[in-house]
Amino acid sequence: MSSFGKRVVFFVFTFFACTAVSAQPRSRTSFNKDWKFFLGDAARAKEASFDDSRWRVLNLPHDWSIEGSFDEKNPAKPEGGGLPTGIAWYRKTFAVPASSSSKNIVIEFDGIYRDSEVWVNGKYLGKRPNGYISFAYDITSCLKFGQPNTIAVRVDNSLQPNSRWYSGSGIYRNVWLTTTSNVAVDHWGTFITTPEVSQASATVNLAVKLKNTGSNSGSVKVNSIVYGPNGAKIAEVVSSGVSLKDKVISLTQTLRVKEPKLWSTDNPHQYKAVTRVYTGKKLLDEYVTSFGIRYFKFDAATGFSLNGKSLKILGVCNHHDLGALGAAFNTRAAERQLEILKEMGCNAIRTAHNPPAPELLDLCDKMGFLVMDESFDMWRKKKTSQDYHKDFPEWHKADLEDMVKRDRNHPSIILWSIGNEIREQFDSTGIAITRDLVRIVKNLDTSRPVMSALTETVAEKNFMYQAGVLDLYGLNYNHKLYKDFPKNYPGQKFLATETTSALQTRGFYDTPPDTIRRWPRNGKTKLTEGNSEIAVSSYDNVSAYWGSTHEETWKEVKKYPHVSGLFVWTGFDYLGEPIPYPWPARSSYFGIIDLAGFPKNAYYMYKSEWTNTPVLHLLPHWNWTAGKSVDVWAYYNNADEVELFLNGRSLGSKKKEGEDLHVEWKVNYEPGILKAISRKNGKVILTREVKTAGAPSKIELSADRNTIQADGKDLSFITVRILDAEGNLVPDADNLVKFNMTGNGFIAGVDNGYQASMESFKTPYRKAFKGMCLAIIQSKEKSGEINLQASSEGLQPMSITIKSK
Questions:
Q1: Residue 21, pLDDT score
Q2: Which stretches of the chain score pLDDT less than 50?
Q3: Contact at 8 Å (CB) between 175 and 583?
Q4: When you count CB atoms within 10 A of the terminal residue's CB, does the N or C end of the chain come out lower?
């Protein structure tokens, strides 16, 4: 049996920052503040003496593209979001105390898009072309201790197009400065597996790699302690006499955890291991690893199980951008996305199509999401003229190794993906490259399956499959083939790695949904283009030619136990790839949730199917032309039937028959109140009403959180709704809403979810789209109140206060 069928457990690796005081052997501090930025090239900026006094001062993470204006002529093209790219420089002056002259100093970059080059005090450290990979440089030999030092970073995102979606530009993830003793745990220096897990106990194997960067000899003692989810010490192991004769020292420690609390999607219990390195009684290093204990299995007949219990993977694919914030990573923004998905019933994330920010994986560990961690969107064969195919031959090994070493201890990760829709699957070169990449992964981690998201459905024609080393068959789309997969691929484990590509625009209803329509291959047909709108029906009846509607695919996944699960394309709309629409469309239509974080109608279909939370969702809005025949849908669960009323008159009860996922009525419109009641055994479960709205009258503001941290990073997302005098959402309102801020915060971004809006994300105003828009408030590093005022001509203004502490 392969290792994936055995009980195996994986551990989360998370560095914990320490305050830089002399009593502590390891310091990992944020290096994000007070950088100088210049958009453009400056050949001498690498020199320490260069004058950057006129450069802009900012804090990282930073995405300069999101600050620009939309333009079809920008080199990234609409597929790249239609925003500017180019070349830019970042510089920072910093001091390292003289007391650290005997220490080892490393700078860590979580991600720079792209082609980054780094200098410290004019000394060249290196280049990383890959814009998504995390990497580090040892800068000890470059430093002047007790004196000012200068770091310079050149970022080149000028060669375009290099992505099929919005990439962002700049140092768009966190940067860290880590100080250690000359003998310490190495960068990404632990790996923990548990070959045996039961209700009674779990065996913990902790592999530790030490680095010896000085002239140290003799030996050290390595002591590791495991703490439980409640913080209590539960296991300890000591390795004495560990020789320092080599520069890199590897050892393995074994511990036993009694009655482990298993990590799961419902109960994501986490433990903590603290590894300390001593010479005599002197503490040289302290390294903290948080982790979770669990085991899983993929089976060709029964699909996926977690901790011995069958579990359908209910996942979404997500790109890395955070809407109006662009690619600049923000932990709270990512957490909000996961909260919205969790409420829908989602339990898995595919990091499409690149390694994510490490904090996203920390959130998945904490919140209980399974993760398919993906490395590449292309190998040697290009998808755009300037993409990673040019760097793959030289850099694929280092990039893939760094991804696995960084991420291999996260309990959330259950799959390594070596590629998405790779073009080498169609020719014989795919055999050797597939074997090479799988070997690279398994040299570092044999505890998880390795797979790729494939599109070629005929085994004899798929050269990546013919390599014979993929542990699962991951298929994109082709939902009609799920039924016969066991017959066509006997004994093969199966996962629907990418599905659906259905098209919706929140709040827009353009055609009766009585037939399913596919966007044609030639792309010539416009679904809707009028009244300055490029939008598509919010009914689930339109998809790209390669995909399906949400309901079509979910029915197939739900029906067959051999289908381990699915990853819907996509959870959220994302910047770029506005297929099938022409400019001014500049972001995708595929999301279950729009770019602002507002759910589309499909969200409630999934919630009704993926959760036990009572659901009754009624659509569409109720503002139409008198006499128009309107298709009314209801998604529901936990009930036998739904009865529909119009102005108090019953229009009949409907129940889902067979594989139905919703009920529907054709209703001749008249203004008033449309009401739905769901019942089970005659008892009312839920009631929902949709009312005809009058003219816009006032603004409503609501915050996802009314209290945030005064750390300069935390966010409050303010939903703006345009209401009539009776408090009903006006479904076609497009009022221009102006924002004014006072207090200890600022507007980090604005949005309305409309895929073809040309308004900047960074202005203090936004037009409502279908009655709604969004303001994102970011704290400053000072506690107090933040007040946001929203006004619009002819409407009652509104304000909201957020506490920052």
A1: 32
A2: 1-22, 524-525, 527-532
A3: no
A4: N
Query: How many Å separate Cα 429 from the centre of its chain?
Result: 31
Give the tokens for residue 150: 């200068």
Can you tell me the distance from the alpha carbon of 106 to that of 398, in angstroms, rounded to the nearest whole number?
A: 18
Torsion sign (Cα): 463, 466, 470, 472? positive
* β-bridge mates for residue 28, sequence order: 178
Spatial contact of 413 and 458, defined as CB atoms under 8 Å apart: no
Residue 398 phi/psi, 5° resolution?
Answer: -65, -45
Amino acid found at 34: D
Count how many Cα atoms sit within 13 Å of the Cα of residue 313 in the half-sphere of its side chain.
37
Catalytic status, residue 421: yes
CA distance 220 to 222: 7
Distance (Å, rounded) from C-alpha 420 to C-alpha 376? 7
- Catalytic site residue from 117, 286, 456, 498: 498
Residue 98 is encoded by which pair of tokens? Answer: 């003289």
Catalytic option among 117, 286, 421, 609: 421
Q: In sequence order, which ranges of 565-665 are alpha helices (DSSP H)?
A: 602-610
CB neighbours (10 Å) of residue 658?
5
Among the listed residues 597, 59, 666, 667, the one whose alpha carbon sits nearest the alpha carbon of residue 328: 59
pLDDT at 14: 31
- For 451, the token pair is 């797979």
CB atoms closer than 10 angstroms to residue 305: 15
Distance separating alpha carbons of residues 486 and 494, to the nearest angstrom = 9
Residue 458 makes CB contacts below 8 A (sequence gap 6+) with none
> For residues 374 and 369, what is the distance between their CA atoms, to the nearest angstrom?
15
79 is catalytic: no
Q: Which of 642, 724, 712 is nearest to 680 (CA)?
A: 642
Q: Are 707 and 715 in contact (CB under 8 A)?
A: no
Identify whether the C-beta of residue 190 lies closer than 8 Å to the C-beta of residue 289: yes
Say if CB 712 and CB 780 are below 8 A apart.
yes
> What confidence tens digit (pLDDT) does each residue in 501-534 have?
999 999 999 877 777 778 766 554 454 444 346 8
The amino acid present at 532, given as its one-letter code, is S
Give the list of residues 6+ apart from residue 589 with CB closer than 8 angstroms, or none.
Answer: 503, 504, 505, 536, 573, 578, 579, 581, 755
3-state secondary structure of 390: helix
318: which 2 tokens?
Answer: 């997500």
Whole-number pLDDT of residue 522: 56
pLDDT of residue 109: 98
Whether the CB-CB separation of 394 and 351 falls below 8 Å is answered with: no
CB neighbours (10 Å) of residue 221?
16
Report whether the peptide linkage leading into residue 279 is cis, meaning its omega lies within 30 degrees of zero.
no
Residue bearing tokens 């913080």? 231
The candidate with the shortest Cα–Cα distance to 494, out of 531, 526, 459, 544, is: 459
What CA–CA distance (Å, rounded) separates 382 from 164? Answer: 11
Give the residue from 532, 641, 521 showing the smallest Cα distance to 583: 532
Distances (CA, A) of 96 to 120, 152, 688, 797: 13, 16, 62, 51
Q: What is the pLDDT of residue 571?
A: 98
Residue 514 in tokens: 């009585």
Q: Which among 743, 751, 748, 754 is positioned nearest to 799, based on CA atoms?
A: 743
CA separation for the pair 609, 592 (Å, rounded): 14
